[in-house]
Design goal:
The chain contains eleven helices and 13 strands. The chain is α/β, with parallel strands linked by helices and 365 residues long. It has two domains: 214 residues, P-loop containing nucleotide triphosphate hydrolases (Rossmann fold), CATH 3.40.50; 42 residues, Arc Repressor Mutant, subunit A (Orthogonal Bundle), CATH 1.10.10. It is globular, with a radius of gyration of 26 Å.
Length: 365
């Protein structure tokens, strides 16, 4: 029979708990430490009685303490819309140009360069996760970007990492599952920006229209943001023209961008679309105006992105169509270009006032 004082044992246990709690409060966990290791995935029946029950502590601050607390300032990675600790989504119908757009963003952020009218002040570490393209295809697209970008904006070594299916020994796991997140964790531990292209391929499991199926992904993304990382999700449009699946995806997003096909644009002419800010928590005014962009080839066969104000682009297409087919009335032009009749009327009136056209805007139809 043991003669050890039971109260002494209790005191030691209490002291151990206090020491452990103090240590946990003083240590900031790394990203990898926040994701369970694969070896810990055991049936609940085997571990329920063995594992200690830990209740996460929730911190509440008095308003004075909150206002005086030092938080990292908002830092832009691609001014003005892509910031650190932001969750963003870009969505579009298939074939519009989501991957062209997302690769352009990723390369500019990693190299401290420019994309369209946005600029990165300094290089940031990017991990681009491609879920569907053939290795040769994404290699070709990246090569075109490299050849068309000034050397001074080439990403430093290690600042742009690519994960794509064809270089893996096994299929990429679903990152909607904790097991998949654990496998991915070492690859994104140092990343400032993670690009997930696309949700349908990389976040498999459950029904897209089911809000509960999104919850594990939302929890993962919010954890990444808490740890100072940004995520750009690339997603498909549904038949109704909105991002496919549950609208709850947009709830946690700081920025939501839709790439919209230009109705009279032909696919053989290259990528061209409208960039629309559907949600932007920290932007206003000119920063959120829709722009019309196009990816073209110059005389040296290097790719060049062009952009202009969307209203100007529409006005130019209206005048071009009216000049090519003068007998079209305003309603017919509006139907052909997918805009409002009032937009056609304003464009023709303005053109006539400044003398670009004469007598074209007399009809009332």
């Amino acid at each position: 029979m043991s003669t050890q004082d039971p109260f002494h044992v209790m005191d030691e246990t209490k002291e151990s708990r206090i020491a452990l709690n103090t240590q946990l409060k003083n240590e900031e966990p790394t990203y990898q430490e926040t994701i369970p290791k694969l070896s810990k995935f055991k049936p609940c029946s085997e571990t329920a009685d063995q594992q200690p029950k830990i209740t996460p502590g929730i911190v509440a601050l008095d308003i004075d303490a909150l206002l005086s607390r030092s938080f990292p300032p908002m830092e832009t990675m691609l001014t003005p819309w892509l910031c650190k600790q932001h969750l963003s989504m870009v969505h579009a119908w298939r074939g519009v140009g989501k991957t062209h757009f997302s690769l352009g963003v990723a390369y500019a952020v990693a190299g401290g360069g420019e994309f369209l009218k946005w600029k990165a002040e300094k290089p940031s570490r990017v991990v681009y996760i491609d879920g569907e393209m053939a290795g040769a295809a994404i290699q070709s697209r990246l090569n075109e970007i490299v050849q068309s970008t000034p050397d001074e904006h080439e990403p430093p070594e290690g600042f742009l990492q690519i994960i794509t299916p064809d270089i893996q020994n096994t299929p990429l796991p679903s990152f909607a599952l904790t097991e998949g997140q654990a496998v991915l964790a070492p690859c994104i531990a140092d990343a400032d920006l993670i690009v997930v292209d696309n949700l349908s391929c990389l976040m498999r499991g459950g029904q897209e229209n089911d809000g509960q199926s999104w919850e594990p992904v939302a929890e993962w993304a919010l954890n990444l943001r808490r740890l100072g990382k940004s995520v750009l999700f690339v997603h498909h449009d549904g038949k109704g023209g909105q991002q496919r699946g549950t609208s709850r995806k947009e709830d946690i997003m700081d920025v939501v961008i839709q790439l919209e096909h230009i109705k009279d644009h032909q696919a053989e002419d290259g990528a061209a679309f409208l960039v629309k800010f559907e949600k932007a928590r920290h932007l206003m005014g000119e920063e959120t105006k829709t722009i019309e962009v196009a990816l073209i080839q110059d005389d040296q066969n290097k790719q060049i992105w062009t952009y202009k104000d969307a209203e100007l682009g529409m006005s130019e297409r209206i005048l071009k169509l009216k000049e090519e087919v003068p007998e079209l009335n305003q309603s017919e032009i509006a139907n052909e270009l997918g805009c409002n009749r009032s937009t056609v009327s304003r464009a023709l009136n303005k053109a006539e006032r400044i003398g670009n056209i004469r007598g074209y805007n007399n009809e009332q139809a």
